[in-house]
Specification:
CATH superfamily of the largest domain: Cysteine proteinases
Strand content: 15-25%
Organism: Chitinophaga defluvii
Order of helices and strands: HHEEHEHEEEEHEHHHHHH
InterPro entries: BtrH_N, DUF4872
Shape: globular
Largest sheet: 6 strands, antiparallel
Number of strands: 8
Strand order of the largest sheet: 3-8-4-5-6-7
Helix content: 40-55%
Protein name: BtrH N-terminal domain-containing protein
Pfam families: BtrH_N, DUF4872
Structural class: alpha+beta
CATH architecture of the largest domain: Alpha-Beta Complex
CATH class of the largest domain: Alpha Beta
């Protein structure tokens, strides 16, 4: 295991950022976009019957933890993962590991992290960060979405690690037991791309992938009539939040995946991937345009008269563009 100081690098997204920072600590240099792509993080799902804070759930990435599991499997990294029945056991286990100089990834709720500005704190229980030591009673934190390292008091850390709600973190922590010094990325890139194309194009349930975007488009068009103006604004606001705040990096991770395709194009000498990267960036711009206009609707500033029907049409355009793009990506010979 490494004895070098933990190097903090700010990233766009917590899970892929922790992968990049933690693996880099042990000499396995992998960028955040590469981690996101190998882990097939790109996704879409809209689950109207799964309410998060009373609002239908929308996700632009694969479920929490899946990126980490896939990257570890594809790169040959062995991880120790633990959950706990009580805060006391969880904190004792954390102390025992960091005393050995081993940085530890923990799952937390954003709501209880005091170093987040109040406006950014809400009940999201799948936020990843790294605890890499202690200073007095306080824990040293490398949170990949922050620009620098910080600290957290033990009481707040306990609250964040044992927050109630879905999903419950249950004190989850993880750290590497074995990290290979060198890996070939060719096969992991191919497997990640194949898996992403499958989830975007071939899941038979119409709530997921490009079919899920079309499904959401149909619901957005009818929000005011179906749920009333007040709920329509709440529902629309959550779609934007998941896209632009939880979908960190903007455009629901589309820019992040485009960066992965560009990096993969250089590594594998595949010009087709570079073209697809540029095209996905343009799709990300359409998502951004949707978020901008939807935000104006939420704030009643739609002076240009953008309607829910027009927002729905923007989502349909996103689904058409993404279906074409992922079909092209699935046919690239790697």
């Amino acid at each position: 295991m490494s004895t070098t100081p933990f190097k903090h690098v700010q990233t766009a997204h917590c899970e892929s950022g922790v992968i990049s920072n933690m693996f880099g600590h042990y000499g396995l240099q992998i960028s955040e976009p590469m981690a996101f792509g190998i882990g097939a993080g790109i996704f879409f799902g809209h689950l109207p019957f799964v309410k998060v804070n009373g609002v239908p759930g929308t996700t632009y990435r694969i479920w929490p933890g899946a990126i980490f599991q896939r990257v570890c499997k594809r790169l040959g990294v062995k991880m120790e993962l633990q959950k706990f029945s009580s805060p006391q056991k969880a904190m004792t286990a954390l102390d025992n590991v960091i005393e050995k100089g081993i940085p530890v990834g923990v799952l937390s709720s954003v709501y209880y992290l005091p170093y987040f500005p109040p406006s950014y704190r809400f009940h999201f229980n799948a936020h990843n960060l790294v605890i890499y030591g202690k200073e007095g009673e306080n824990y040293l934190v490398s949170d990949p979405v922050m620009d620098t390292v910080t600290q957290i008091d033990p009481e707040s850390l306990i609250q964040a690690r044992f927050a109630k709600g879905f999903p419950e973190p249950k004190g989850k922590m993880y750290y590497p037991l074995h990290v290979p010094e060198k890996v070939s990325l060719h096969k992991p890139i191919k497997e990640g791309i194949d898996q992403a194309c499958h989830f975007m194009l071939k899941v038979p349930i119409p709530l997921f992938g490009v079919k899920g975007i079309r499904f959401l488009a149909g619901r957005v068009k009818n929000y005011p009539e179906k749920v009333g103006d007040r709920k329509a604004v709440l529902y629309l606001g959550n779609i934007i939040r998941m896209q632009e705040e939880i979908g960190t990096g903007g455009a629901g991770f589309r820019f992040l995946y485009a960066a992965f395709l560009q990096e993969a194009a250089m590594l594998l000498q595949k010009e087709e991937l570079s073209v697809l990267s540029q095209d996905l960036t343009k799709v990300g711009d359409i998502w951004r345009n949707f978020a901008f206009h939807a935000g104006r609707v939420c704030k009643s500033r739609a002076a240009d008269g953008v309607s829910y029907k027009e927002l729905s049409e923007m989502l349909v355009q996103c689904s058409v563009e993404e279906e074409q793009l992922f079909r092209r990506l699935s046919k690239v010979k790697l």
